[in-house]
Amino acid sequence: MGNLDEKTFETTIAHCTKCGAKALEVFTYIDRQISVMLGERNDDGRWTHDGEKFIDGVYRIKCIACSHDQYASHDCPRCHRAGGLADVVGKPSRLAVPKRCPSCKATELTLTGFAPATVRTGEAHKPSPRPTALFGDPGFHVAHIMCDGCDYVALAEGCPLCAGPGPLRTRPG
Fold first, then answer.
1. In a domain, 115, yes or no
2. Residue pair 24/16 in contact by the 8 Å Cβ criterion
3. Strand, coil or helix: what is 85?
4. How many CA atoms lie within 13 A of 127 on its CB side?
5. What is the pTM of this model?
6. Quick one: DSSP state of residue 114?
7. Second label for 96, Cα 20 to 30 Å away, from 8, 54, 157, 162?
8. Domain extent for 133
């Protein structure tokens, strides 16, 4: 479990404790699956998280009206290594995606990574994640690569976000 549980998260996003506004911006790292061909993305991918995994990756909740931080953590959003967020945001992925499968030389691979995203909450906002980095951008971190043509799999060593040694906690869901 992350630094926030579901009850604490719901209380935190109810309204700003400083100005009372109900519109907040949530910053999180969540699971995104992407198809790649010859090392380039075929599409922008799709979210593969559930509610618990969304909350698990939250590192900041900010009021849109007054910019007050309702919640802020400098820990890694994945393994919660103290100060690990600095090694994650805007940094390149440590797991390189090959242009071809090293095993069967196929050109199509599927990867799962952690994408930074924001969600705006409140009465006038549809709570849908918006990625702030996609595969290939600084801040997107590849965690798992799978070949579509054989059984090749590659995993990031340690924490896929900050490179912390672990042990990694079990992902919710």
1. yes
2. yes
3. helix
4. 14
5. 0.89
6. E
7. 54
8. 6-155
